[in-house]
Every structure is written in structure tokens, then in C-alpha cells.
Amino acid sequence: MAGLSRRAFLATVAGLSAAWAIPKQALGSVLSAPAAVGTGTSTLQQGIAIGPIADKQYRTLVTRVGEPHFARLDILGQVPDPKRVDRRRSLLYFGHLSDMHLMDAQSPARLEPMIAMDHTLWGGAFRPQDTLTTHVAAAMVTSITDLRISQVTGAPLAAAFVTGDTADMLSSLETRWYVDLLDGVPITPNSGDIGVYDGVQSWSEAYYAYHPEDPTGDWFGNYGFPAVPGLLDAAVSQEVKSPGLPVPWYGVYGNHDTVYLGTMGVPAALRAFAVGDRKFFDWTAQGIDYVQGWSAETSALARMLHVLSDNVGIHLGSKAVTPDPARKLLQQQDFMAAHFQTTPNPGPVGHGFTQANLDSGETYWSADIGPFVRAFGLDTCNQIAGPDGAVPEAQFTWLKQGLEQATKEGKLAMLFSHHNSFTLENDAALATEPQRLVHAEELIAMLLEYPNVVAWMNGHTHINTITPHRNAAGTGGFWEITTASCIDYPQQQQVIEVVDNRDGTMSLFTTALDHAAPAEWNGDLSPLGLASLSRELSANDWVESPSLRIGSVMDRNCELLMPAPIDLSAVTDAAIEAAQAADRARIMAYEQGWSTS
């Protein structure tokens, strides 16, 4: 370590050795070795593509060559110095996850039958891979963990951020699975009867659902989806083990963590139905019960039918299922509270949210990630209605004040939110609780007033997208980085690295990650094999356009260049080495099972 003096190096080793119960000699050997780039696999080495037709219109997946980083100069506005490669140094390396959509596919609160009414409108109500979301999440955590050393600079991973839509249906059980999988706590993704799948994928009446035991005659079988005997039993009976993240991770609200189906409020009757003993398979009956029966505007006849069905115990178009209190739907602050029910490592307790958040009800936070970067976790979700978002004025003011402070302290600033600049136009509000909502144009204009804002990470659209925001003078700006999802093809997430090129410019390296399951499913019904099958099923969505969600070459593996917004020469090599030593020690502790003194 050229930056740290010998005395400082020995003191650093001694302190970190004591903190993480790592032998001094082993830690010192790692910290004194020359940095080597990571050996994990990312889309730099190998990619996945939609391959040949297997049956009718159904396609399998194949591997393809990797993609190098593509240099984008939209903000820099000039040809960069090619010698930057030899002198760059890493300021922060982190993981970005979004739209995991962990799903209890057996919940009575789900709306699967509605796709029979309109598959385009209600496409998110049912996907053939609904039972496999936890398997994908565990495989994605594995991929990020495998990339805990940067493939660009050899820097250690410092943090990870999850930008919302972790649960799919506002479910406490789904949220619990999300926290446990990121923490490395094994789960069994089942509800109701132990080890038994009981839902539309096993009910012949649900012709609109994929029946893996025998898809003959259902929509998906007609398309060419394969018979996979044993899939449902395997999905709900096996323990899913995640390696857990090796670094502190932070979360923010997504619309699916805020309102029902990410779109609407939750009536009391639906909360009761979620933990009850009836589940619908018919959309006409579900429409009457969910929409008409619980609405103040229904006809007298519809209300009477609903009361009779409740009192007599008859719900037409439904079947009896095993009730489960763990399926309860979240209240607004329950999502934050779930982040406090966590393991001590990797931390932090609350994962961005603090006790002050729980006490005040504020759903946004800020945190320093290492000595050089301040992260701002926003809640852009609308609690009233609609999938898209906005920034309430009180939060907008808080953010502006936080950016002022970060500027005074010479810190780079990064934003993390669920919604992106294309989806911040929601105006829904209660007349009794008026509050001005800030939309994309005003938010971007404010962010451009602060040169230290370098990046805005988000999700929501399930598409890899990178958008430059350049200031009017053409002297700088920030990059908006939107990652895909774990539920829809290509089921990718990403790692991002902030690099000082030591020439008055900096770069953000974005690298797309496929989850760790094989590209080509070979019939394996283990948890990893089910993750592989999930990706293949998702590639055969005939309503959407799966291949478009990958984004262009300018939206995946990129080097995003920009003028350095602050004097990075003031950041000493010693400070960088001390921060990375702490990150490496944490990773060593993770590799040894988090043993601490």
C-alpha cells in the first residue's frame, strides 16, 4: 500500500484484525498484496441470448460472447485520455439490485384470474415463473457475491443497494423472504400447507395459467411451454439457501412495497381475504368480490351477493385453501420495520432506515458509504394510487438541504429511488392532505444545480437503461442508471464502480450481471436449476417483448465518463487505501463466516 505509511498500515491491520477476529498475519498478507481484478463471471466474459425454437413458438436460451465496457462521452463531451487506464483508482464499488418481486404465488390475495379478462392489461397478475422468484433472488445474490472483487480495478465491494419492488403483492411473507435472502438466512418458499403447492397452476379450471404437470390445453401449452413434472412440488418444498451479501445493504420503497399490486390502496376486506381460506380461479367472480363487493359505488344486488357469500361461506369461482397468517398485507411502516429484523452482519440494522424513520414515519434516508460518497435513499412512491411516482415537496426540500450539506463537506452524492425520470409524473393525492408533488423535470433541474451529484440509480421499468443528464453549460451533469428486474427477462442486475481517472475526469463503470444459474436449463429441479428454468420461462413472454428489456449496448456494460465534479486530488491515496482495507477485512470476515471478537 503506497499511500499508507508503515505505521498507519500496521495500525490499520491491528484494528481490523481485532474488529473482525481475523489473524493479523493473514489480514496483513491480503492487504499488502498488489490489487488483482476479480475472477468472478459477469457479462464481460459471457452473456445469454434467446436461442432456437424448441416447440411451437417456445424458445430456449443459449450462451453468447461477453461484452466489453462501452465508453459513453455524452456528459464528458470530448475524447478521453487513453492513458487513464494506467492511473485510475477506485473510489467506490457497489451492487445494485431492483425489482426482485419475491412472490408468494399461493396467496389468496393474488389476482391471477384477471389476465383471462385482459392479458395485456393484467399481464403482471400471472407469470409462468411465479413460483420461482426466491430461487432467482438467491442465484442473483450468488452472482453479486462472486463479484465481490472488481473486475475493473480489483477494489473490494463496499455496499449494495436495492431500489424497491422487493415484495410483489405487499405481503409480509414476501418481504421476510427478501430480507432473509440478502442476509443469507435459508428459507422455504411456501405458505399454507407445508410442502404442498395449492394454487392456480395446479387447478384445471385456471386455463389461463401454466400447468407444468400437463400444460396441454392451457394458454402456455398452446404456445409450446414444456411439461415439467414435479416443478411445483420442488419449488415449494426445498430449502433455498443464499450466500448472503458480503457487504452492508440498503433498501428503499417500491410501488409494490407501498400499494396493492403496486397500483391501488388496500381495503380492509382484502386484508382479511389475504390470510383467509378461499382463493379465486375465475376472474368474473373475483371481479365482483374484489372490485364490486368492496366498493361504495356497487349496486345493491352486488353488495347483497357479497354479504351472502361472506355469511354463507360461498365464493363462486374460488376454492378452499389453507389459511396462513404469515400472508398478511403490509401497512405503510411495516416495510421499514422488517429491515430491523435482520442479522448483525452484513448490516446495518435498518438497512438505511433508522429509528427516527420509524418514529416519524419518514420513508427516506441518507447514509455515508465510505469516506467519499453520501447516498440518498428516496421514496418516490405514491401511497394513493397508480404505479408511477413523484417526490413530495417535503422530501424534495430535505434532499436539497442534504445536497447542500454534502457539497460543503466535499462528498460525491448519489441518489437511489425506485422510479426513474420516465415514470415520475404521478399526481394522485388526497384532497384532505394536499401536498405539492415534484415531477421529473423539476427534480432533474434541481439535481443539476449540485455538481457533486454524479449518479441516480433506480428501476421500475424492468429495462436496462442509462440516461445522461447534462447541465445547460455543457460542463458536467450526472448519469441516471436504471437496472432490469429479477422477475422478467433478462433477470439481470448490476455492479457499479466509481473511478477517479486522475486527470480531472471520472468514470462510472456499469456491469450487467446474469444470476448464477446456467443459461441452458437441463431439467434440473434443484433451487439453482429452478432459477435457470425461471429465466427460460421469462424469455417466452409473448405479450411483452423480452429481448427489448436487455437494453442496447449503451445501456449495459459501460464506462460513463464525466468531468470530476470536485477536486479529487484532495482525496489522498492513504484515505482510499484505508477505506478499501476496511472493506477487504469485512469480506474476509464474511468468507470466514462472520466471526467477530
Mean pLDDT: 92
Number of domains: 1
- Sequence stretches where pLDDT stays below 50 over 5 or more residues: 293-305
Main beta-sheet annotation: 7 strands, mixed
In the CATH hierarchy, the third-tier topology is known as Purple Acid Phosphatase, chain A, domain 2
Structural class call reads alpha/beta
CATH homologous superfamily identity: Metallo-dependent phosphatases
Known CATH architecture: 4-Layer Sandwich
Helix content: 25-40%
- The outline comes out as globular
In short:
By secondary structure, the chain is of the alpha/beta class. It has 16 helices and 19 strands.
Topology:
Blueprint: H1 6-20, H2 24-32, E1 46-55, E2 58-65, E3 70-72, H3 84-87, E4 89-97, H4 133-146, E5 159-162, H5 172-183, H6 219-223, H7 231-237, E6 249-251, H8 268-274, E7 278-280, H9 283-292, H10 300-312, E8 318-320, H11 334-338, H12 355-360, E9 365-369, E10 373-377, E11 391-392, H13 393-408, E12 412-416, E13 437-438, H14 440-447, E14 453-458, E15 465-470, E16 477-482, E17 492-500, E18 505-514, H15 527-538, E19 558-563, H16 573-591
Parallel strand pairs: 3-19, 4-5, 5-6, 10-12, 12-14, 14-16
Antiparallel strand pairs: 1-2, 4-17, 7-8, 9-10, 11-13, 15-16, 17-18, 18-19
